[in-house]
Amino acid sequence: MQQTSSDSQAANIIQQAIASTDSNCRARWPILKYQDAIGLMMLTIALTGMIISGLGYILWGLPAWLAIVCSAFFAGLSHEIEHDLIHRLYFRKHAVIYHLMMSLVWLMRPNTVNPWYRREMHLNHHKTSGTENDLEERILGNGMKFGFFRLLISLDTFISISLRAKELGKLKQFSYFNFVLKGAPLAHIYLLALYSFLIFHGYHVIATATGLPVNYPHWLLTSVELLDVVAVVWLLPNALRAICLHGISAALHYYGDVDHLNKQCQVLNHWALFPMQLFCCNFGSTHIIHHFYVRQPFYIRQLIAKRIHPVMREQGIRFNDFHSLLRANLFAIKKQ
């Protein structure tokens, strides 16, 4: 698919609209000039929210499902903060605070590679979005045909790279063992704990239903009690967050025939996606703005999205093109 001058004109119109609306927003709200402080405050809120949700479950009788939902929401907020940090939008000139924030967002979201390595992947994503070299999105399933296998690999990054090691190994920037090492130690701890939790409770359900032995030793039951707490406050919230983010991200990015910025993403803002959007900071609705204007923190994207979406629609950006999943994320729509 060959790009035309109208593609560039449309992109310029969208970028100018974003820049103008951004400037107006900052002029209207002078507090937005304190970008470093806002980023740190957002991280503090997210971290505090996760801690209070966990304490609510452990000490104050908060239902497990509610603790998981609340923590998943705050973990999703930390993802957006990490994304801004990757683009060095906070504390660019203060290395200690910057790296402390990077460490905290990883601690809050342990089911990822470390954010310093993720920065390399994400910057490569902007250079190669929609092509076979876009490692970040290909790991999430972008470009795969919709079906059980794609749903399976969207559940967990480790499952994806393990089942598709040969395919991804063709990329120069991917090495399976190097990728695994970039998750140490937090991702390793997370995976060990999560799969231990799933294996024990999976066995217990099957054993109870089929009459298999369930006379567990005392040390195992004590360990499982602790593991259950960790699962509610840390493991399951991040599993929920990741499933929602991965599903939205892999659906909104196009792949395979992308030759222009306009064709890299669509807007996913259908009301039915609200439950998923809740745990990834409205990612489907606002991420495309970032592709056109990268030097903007996530909270401003949220503020201006309703003003920018009509401009995008006028310039041919697609909205809620769910059929792209059946096209393996191809931009082109085949005529019947």
What features would you highlight for this structure?
336 residues, mainly alpha, 66% helix, 0% strand
Sketch the major β-sheet. none
- Principal-axis shape equals globular
Give the termini separation: 18 Å
Strand runs, count: 0
Strand residues, percent: under 5%
Q: Determine the number of helices (DSSP H or I, runs of at least 4 residues).
A: 15
Mean pLDDT: 95
**Which residue ranges are poorly predicted, with pLDDT under 50 across at least 5 consecutive positions?**
none
Radius of gyration from the CA trace?
21 Å
**Series of H and E elements:** HHHHHHHHHHHHHHH
Query: What structural category characterises the helix and strand content?
Result: mainly alpha
Describe this structure in words.
This protein has 336 residues and is mainly α. It has 15 helices and no strands. The protein has helices at 5-28, 35-59, 64-86, 95-108, 115-128, 135-139, 148-154, 157-163, 165-168, 176-181, 186-210, 218-252, 274-278, 283-292, 298-314. Helix 2 (35-59) packs antiparallel against helix 3 (64-86) and helix 2 runs parallel beside helix 4 (95-108).
Summarize the structure.
The protein has 336 residues and is mostly helical. It has 15 helices and no strands. It is 66% helix and 0% strand.
